[in-house]
């Protein structure tokens, strides 16, 4: 069976820890090469992860004719440049979230990929896990009644990690970019619509280049429905989603990090009691890779088109503006 050959642009922790193993475990993909600006680092990572080829520059990787697509886990401010350069080299692109620094950049990236006809996706791996299709089926069934609201959290504490790229404002640092994008994208996905306005309050830390180390917000959707959320990089770990209806609710205890065990299950709570719903034990990074491969090899449409990333970035733009200017921001 023909497989999509991936090159990895950068040796970021998320790439080594999750995405590369996920691609390697997928049915339709393989990792052919990895590049770093330091050849020694690329060689070390290639050896650790059994990757055949290591390059000492991103340009060399893009020039490799044996690579079909690239995964880009670089700092946020480099996403636009290397996505466009990869597209111009004829490579399909999986780009780490958030796709860009703002919606205008995201739009330029999408247009560049469309112009040359390469597949382009934002790396929201959680959306490919079947449990979200199962949750949407519960919502459609009416078991929890009419939807009244969603609450999402994603927080962790790495505040002592001096020099972390997430703490550089000009590089697109901050908790809204890093983890706030998860509950935001989840609400848009589950509701199937775009929010009308955002109001966000944030803690901007002078110790961390004045990026938002914690943010709490509300997104206004139609019919009085809202997403309330909080995200942070200087708070105890949380990773939850709660969907509230008139007759019940759904709890997702590990909403965005699937560990391939019982923690991935979700719970439906109604007047009949609390019911645990078991989900398949699957690697969501492998599922993401296979979805892209089906699009690359067979022309199947992606479940989440690249244009979705532009809409998500518009919401993030509004959230950041609201937090910095301390006001409600309407989203056109």
From TrEMBL:
<dbReference type="InterPro" id="IPR000683">
    <property type="entry name" value="Gfo/Idh/MocA-like_OxRdtase_N"/>
</dbReference>
<dbReference type="Pfam" id="PF22725">
    <property type="entry name" value="GFO_IDH_MocA_C3"/>
</dbReference>
<feature type="domain" description="Gfo/Idh/MocA-like oxidoreductase N-terminal">
    <location>
        <begin position="4"/>
        <end position="122"/>
    </location>
</feature>
<dbReference type="InterPro" id="IPR055170">
    <property type="entry name" value="GFO_IDH_MocA-like_dom"/>
</dbReference>
<dbReference type="GO" id="GO:0000166">
    <property type="term" value="F:nucleotide binding"/>
</dbReference>
<protein>
    <submittedName>
        <fullName>Gfo/Idh/MocA family oxidoreductase</fullName>
    </submittedName>
</protein>
<keyword id="KW-0560">Oxidoreductase</keyword>
<dbReference type="InterPro" id="IPR050984">
    <property type="entry name" value="Gfo/Idh/MocA_domain"/>
</dbReference>
<dbReference type="GO" id="GO:0016491">
    <property type="term" value="F:oxidoreductase activity"/>
</dbReference>
<feature type="domain" description="GFO/IDH/MocA-like oxidoreductase">
    <location>
        <begin position="133"/>
        <end position="251"/>
    </location>
</feature>
<dbReference type="Pfam" id="PF01408">
    <property type="entry name" value="GFO_IDH_MocA"/>
</dbReference>
<comment type="similarity">
    <text>Belongs to the Gfo/Idh/MocA family.</text>
</comment>
<dbReference type="InterPro" id="IPR036291">
    <property type="entry name" value="NAD(P)-bd_dom_sf"/>
</dbReference>
